[in-house]
Write a sequence for this structure.
């Protein structure tokens, strides 16, 4: 009887221990990663709203002779607004007469660029084009805008504040394998009622590849910058949810902190790569980018 009692007590202890284990938080990554932080909490000290960064998406192609003009326009906007511009160049497979890679040169086209081209910009029939913070500006009927309008749109955007503050850091890196762990915080400085998504992309600068030029002919050593290499999150972003059943209605002081793992492709040069991070809407009424930032990998 004594032995049976001890065995029963041991079972009770085991059941009690496992019954009291904390339920892990809901994780909303496309692929679940054990050990990555995914949490949300509310600050007691609320930060102030900040000015929106200028986020430029440039729809481009290597056989598009006017596309280098859009790249120059991005450089112009960046020069006027130093430290306040985040750019991403999209090379879709669509519009094959303007986007088909040249034989013998690296393919810059991605399916991720195709998604943004079709699902955000509505498959425009000509390039270069794109938008500033995925917004419609006065007099515009669509998000896609001619690059000559970008400067004017940025002047409007610079007067706007956003309730979202983005913070990003590299918390672990292995230069030998080009593996990284990223920490991203999304802070709400004011209440916001619509659902927000967090989107992360890898971009690369200083890629030498053939390009059709405005003056005619091609440049086999043209330097392509801000090239979208891949999406780390879902392409439209991962939804920020307080609970699995809760969307939107973020209170002032709400913080989402998430970690992501990244493996660079061996073809990409780490010193030229950046992580583009945006907080965006993705609903039937708006695709607006509410805030953007970028993080260098070197």
């Amino acid at each position: 009887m004594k032995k049976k009692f001890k065995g029963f007590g041991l079972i009770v202890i085991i059941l009690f221990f496992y019954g009291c284990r904390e339920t892990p938080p809901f994780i909303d990554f496309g692929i679940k990663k054990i050990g990555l932080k995914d949490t949300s909490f509310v600050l007691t000290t609320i930060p102030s709203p900040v000015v929106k960064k200028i986020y430029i998406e440039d729809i481009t192609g290597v056989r598009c002779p006017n596309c280098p003009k859009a790249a120059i326009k991005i450089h112009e906007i960046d020069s006027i607004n130093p430290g306040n511009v985040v750019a991403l160049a999209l090379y879709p497979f669509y519009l094959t007469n303007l986007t088909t890679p040249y034989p013998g040169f690296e393919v810059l086209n991605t399916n991720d660029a195709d998604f943004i081209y079709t699902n955000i910009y509505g498959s425009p029939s000509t390039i270069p084009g794109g938008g500033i913070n995925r917004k419609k500006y006065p007099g515009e009927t669509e998000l896609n805008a001619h690059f000559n309008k970008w400067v004017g749109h940025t002047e409007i955007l610079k007067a706007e504040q956003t309730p979202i503050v983005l913070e990003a850091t590299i918390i672990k890196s292995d230069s030998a394998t080009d593996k990284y762990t990223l920490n991203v915080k999304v802070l709400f400085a004011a209440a916001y009622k619509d659902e927000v998504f967090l989107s992360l992309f890898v971009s690369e600068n200083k890629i030498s590849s053939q390009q059709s030029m405005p003056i005619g002919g091609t440049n086999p050593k043209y330097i392509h910058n801000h090239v979208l290499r891949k999406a780390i999150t879902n392409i439209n972003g991962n939804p920020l949810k307080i609970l699995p059943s809760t969307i939107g209605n973020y209170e002032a002081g709400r913080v989402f902190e998430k970690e992501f793992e990244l493996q660079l492709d061996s073809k990409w040069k780490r010193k030229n790569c950046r992580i583009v991070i945006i907080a965006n809407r993705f609903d039937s009424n708006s695709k607006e980018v509410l805030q953007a930032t970028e993080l260098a990998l070197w």
Q: What stands out?
A: Residues 38-296 form a domain with the Immunoglobulin-like fold (CATH 2.60.40.10).
